[in-house]
C-alpha cells in the first residue's frame, strides 16, 4: 500500500502514514476529547503500573488533565480510529530527571497493544513533532527504554544512555 497523507482537524498538519489504511484515522488534542480521560488513564495504569498503579507515586488522571491544554505545554495528542482512541502522546515541559537542562520532551507515548507495529506510533510521533514546530520549538527530546528503533527510524539521534529506575534508557534528540 502506498503512503497516504492525512489532514488533521484544527491544524494544517500533514503526516505521512504507512503500513495501515489510515482513512479512518485522525489526530485530536486531548483538550478536545476530555470524554476519553478515564479510558486513557486506564491505559497509563496498565502500561506503567509501577508509576501509575496502586503502589505508584503518580495519578494518571491528574497527569492527563495537565496535558489537556490547547495553547501551552504540556499538550496531549490522541490518535483516533473511527473516533475511538488508539494512541496517545504528549509534548511535555517537565524535564527528565537525569537531564534537567533539556526542554521540551515528547513522552507518555502509548499505542494500544493490538495496533502496535502498524505505523501508528510513527504517525503519533510525527504529529507531536509537528505540534512542537507549530509552537516554534527548534529541538525536542525523548527518553525511552523500549522505543529506540521507532525514534531512530523517525530520524532521532541518540544523545546519551542513562540508568533510570534500573533500566538502560536512551536519551534522544531531534532538531525540527
The percentage helix is 10-25%
Query: Tally the helices: what do you get?
Result: 5
Kindly identify the CATH topology. Aminopeptidase
Strand-residue proportion: 25-35%
CATH superfamily heading:
Gcn5-related N-acetyltransferase (GNAT)
Structurally, the number of domains stands at 1
State the end-to-end distance.
Answer: 28 Å
Structure report:
By secondary structure, the chain is an alpha+beta fold. The protein has a single domain, classed as Aminopeptidase (3-Layer(aba) Sandwich), CATH 3.40.630.30. The chain is about 25% helix and about 35% strand. The chain contains 5 helices and 9 strands, in the order E-E-E-H-H-H-E-E-E-H-E-H-E-E. The strands form 3 sheets. The chain has a 4-stranded antiparallel beta sheet with strand order 3-4-5-6, sandwiched between helices. Strands 7-9-8 form a 3-stranded antiparallel beta sheet. The longest helix is centred in the C-terminal third of the chain and has 15 residues, at about 120-135. It is globular. It starts with a strand and ends with a strand. The model is unreliable at about 1-20 (pLDDT under 50).
Amino acid at each position: 500500500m502506498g503512503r497516504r497523507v492525512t489532514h488533521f482537524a484544527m491544524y494544517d498538519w500533514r503526516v505521512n502514514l504507512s503500513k495501515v489504511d489510515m482513512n479512518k484515522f485522525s489526530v485530536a488534542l486531548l483538550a478536545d476529547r476530555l470524554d476519553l480521560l478515564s479510558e486513557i488513564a486506564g491505559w497509563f495504569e496498565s502500561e506503567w503500573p509501577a508509576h501509575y498503579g496502586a503502589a505508584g507515586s503518580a495519578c494518571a488522571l491528574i497527569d492527563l488533565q495537565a496535558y489537556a491544554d490547547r495553547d501551552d505545554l504540556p499538550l496531549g495528542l490522541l490518535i483516533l480510529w473511527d473516533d475511538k482512541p488508539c494512541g496517545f502522546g504528549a509534548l511535555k515541559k517537565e524535564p527528565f530527571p537525569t537531564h534537567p537542562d533539556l526542554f521540551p520532551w515528547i513522552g507518555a507515548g502509548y499505542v494500544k497493544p493490538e495496533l502496535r507495529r502498524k505505523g501508528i506510533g510513527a504517525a503519533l510521533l510525527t504529529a507531536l513533532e509537528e505540534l512542537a514546530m507549530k509552537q516554534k520549538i527548534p529541538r525536542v527530546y525523548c527518553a525511552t527504554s523500549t522505543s529506540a528503533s521507532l525514534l531512530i527510524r523517525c530520524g532521532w539521534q541518540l544523545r546519551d544512555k542513562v540508568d533510570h529506575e534500573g533500566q538502560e534508557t536512551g536519551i534522544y534528540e531531534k532538531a525540527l
